[in-house]
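Section: Multi-chain targets

For targets with more than one molecule, the full set of components is provided together so that the structure can be written out for the assembly as a whole rather than chain by chain. Components appear in the order listed by the source. The example entry contains two components.
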Amino acid sequence: MLLFSLKPHCKLTFLVSLLWLSLLVDSNSGFELDESLTYIWPLPSEFTSGNQTLTVDPTLSLSVLGKGGYSKILKEGFERYKKIIFKHASGISLFQKWRGIRSVYDVSELRIIVNSDSEELQLGVDESYALFLAKNDGKPIVGAATIEANTVYGALRGLETFSQMCAFDYETKSVQIYKAPWYIKDNPRFAFRGLLLDTSRHYLPIDVIKQIIESMSYAKLNVLHWHIIDEESFPLEVPSYPKLWNGAYTKWERYTVEDASEIVSFAKMRGIHVMAEVDVPGHAESWGAGYPDLWPSSSCREPLDVSKNFTFELISGILSDIRKIFPFELFHLGGDEVHTDCWTSTPHIKQWLNDHKMTAKEAYQYFVLKAQEIAISKDWTPVNWEETFNSFPSKLNPRTVVHNWLGPGVCPKAVAKGFKCIFSNQGAWYLDHLDVPWNEVYNAEPLEGINNVSEQNLVLGGEVCMWGETADASNVQQTIWPRAAAAADKFHFFSTNTPS
Amino acid sequence: MVVSEWLFYAVAVAALVLGNALAVSSASENSKVKIWPMPASASYGNAQLYLTNDFGLSSNHESQALKDAFDRMLAAIKLDHVIDANFSAFSPSSLLRALHIVVSSPNEQLQYGTDESYKLMVPSPEKPGYAHLEAKTVYGALHGLQTFSQLCYFSITRRVLEVRMSPWTVIDQPRFPYRGLLIDTSRHYLPMTVIKKVIDSMSYAKLNVLHWHIVDTQSFPLEIPSYPKLWNGAYSPSERYSAADAAEVVSYAQERGINVLAEIDVPGHALSWGVGYPSLWPSKDCQQPLDVSNEFTFKVLDGILSDFSKIFNFKFVHLGGDEVDTTCWTTTPRIRKWLKRHRMNESQAYQYFVLRAQNIALSHGYEIVNWEETFNNFGSKLSRKTVVHNWLGSGVAQRVVESGLRCIVSNQDKWYLDHLDTPWQEFYINEPLTNISNSKQQELVIGGEVCMWGETIDGSDIEQTIWPRAAAAAERLWTPYDKLAKNPREVTGRLAHFRCLLNQRGVAAAPLAGSGRAAPFNPGSCYEQ
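Its structure, encoded as tokens over all components, is:
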């Protein structure tokens, strides 16, 4: 039964309603949930379901087993998800419980088994889990709800899936799990499932970054690529070179070292790595607000002055300082969109190029490789945007991870040369391209054009990029979602289905 | 000719000088006092104070609501920053150890007209090391806490919370007792978490009424225990509020000093009622307004209002009454017959319906708010307990108060937030008392409300559609008339500051630039966009 009528306070609505009407007629799926679908996102790699309905106790308790069961990360994760699952008031009264009606609920305990007690969060950490949900039937040995994982991070993924299966039923006012018994085995397809945030074009308050990290965990994304600095502003504190954050927009639009550490530990509690980026030698004009020597000249300010030792001393200082903040093994050195005009047009740099018998292009290579060495000396694996690979592939350090963005076909070339690769083809996975709809995001495939399994293994994964030129705290979340979720499904589950 | 020309120039120059002088004086306050909305009175000095790491609350008034509000305030000023200052480096006389709150009334019941005034002194003139806040009610104290939170900054270089420009004395109270924001959960369902975030953000701008337009043509999301099939009209099984959810919204709002005005809009805008009870429709093909000829209609309305009275304890209930197109009454044979038998034309039937609904609401102890069409059509027949809610245009408030009824101003050309192209400046300059000079009549304008109709907004974009434009109206409704900027340009910097504060507190408030609601055009500082 379709209900439709003209409504007033807004003139647009008639048209909107007509559109909506036609959609409904087309798909007939506006109101009734399609029971044949599995409402878990991203879709787990293996699952079976049945046709029972389980009720979940609002005082759901946690019981843990295994060496990793007593982790704080697990305990806090359980409490977070409990809040999400039980946000509505329950209809079954405590009175019923007091009267001794035991087990009014099918699920009153969630058992989580974590085999390892290591909380180290590194690339490739085991995120697999198995989730089992069934009526207890009085058999005490098998818990009605069990998550088993090798690490706490796998257990967190299992909790996320569990939370998505719990639905508040408004008729009985209880939380229910439909289509039980469930048996789910899940393991992500890629180890690197990233989202880029850009805090240089617009400063993002810490609270907003935390909201985004929280939402990433819902889609099982696991890398926050923090593009901290760019030409517009330098918001991060660097204790060794305290004038750098003079390049912040204002004194309020800054992150202290402690703020950055807080973000990293907030992310870790949710199984999310933070990959920091310091983009050199282009995209670095804001550095010179505090140290004008870094500019080729006061009228020609980018890229960083390749001819000065001070430039590399300072990079080394930044990396030493922030190494203490970012424990993740990958570190992004940028290297994209380097226009060397200021090098060739500034006399002292031109002289230096002559003295060293370098072209501007060779100087770009020299800069990138030197920066790579610094990063490697701090025990980091360098990630660079694809221009570095496109310009001097054989010179890059073999540990380099090539970050694709310009177009398709780059990861196949990079992995053929033995490099690791991250896929971010801008035509599909740049979230600042506001006109790319979610189904095009979904259709992009990180392994496209790579058939050899050992080469496929070199593709670490992919990343959707939320560049900040026209996105700030006011609109960043709806620019990220739901399109980032489309990519998240791709990262997670190998599907040949095309979206409808 | 020459003389008159000279006179013209002299007057023009004098006006220019005078105008500039005024602009300069208020501009200087606007650039120094970064409080939104601007308090009735604020004086300040030039000393710096620092909050100690264990900055706490002391009060003569044992109140959980106050304690919770204090904790929220502290979290809002810390903004997740890590405080690790070296306190031994500060002179002891520059440290603030606690905020002392004196509340004179033990009554914590929030109601229309609850005293919201407060006085804030930082530091306390009597107790060194303390800030001092006094208020008649706990709700005045909540506003004082908001103001205090806006005096505090996290110093990124010293890693400490600091109060600049002390000593501060702020004496403050609102200009209007009713400062509302409408949300519409029928056109799009808004999840509980979103409603709570909106309530939080309202408290930052000292708005005090959440007008909850719960039900409309499109969906009926609320549980009505007396008529349980009504929420069959919800969009989907999960886009619903249980009665317990609604009670939770009310108590969440009250803890923040905000009343909830529930609206059940009759007899138009009620099509969704009939999904569960089709006999409320005139007929299957003509589904609005509610069937005036059917006693069951009024039974259901009585049940709804009876259930409401257990949840919504605000003095007022909103009965709508707008945009009633009576065509279905005259084209449905059964109703046409009924009209004839009762010697009513359809506009009389509309009046009959509204007045009967008013009587039902009165019987449940409510005073009534109705949209202005009811006043425009039969103002003299309305209950004297009616508050007329303006929306169609300007000049209505004037006529309403002349007739002795009370009024809420929401003229759509200025205060409808779903008009995306109305810029914040228009929200700022909209004056509820335009052309009302008699002070008795002025008092009948109880306030105003900005309306966030939900046709094209949902949980994804409601915050940036509300903010910062609602804040512009919030200052109009809070700040004494003489302290309001005559030209909104004077407050741009201070409003941008408040917008950035909202962002820092996790509220997705939009940039000021652009005409109406807009995304940022290009990179830049929050404070300049």
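Chain B touches chain A through 65 residues (CB under 8 Å).
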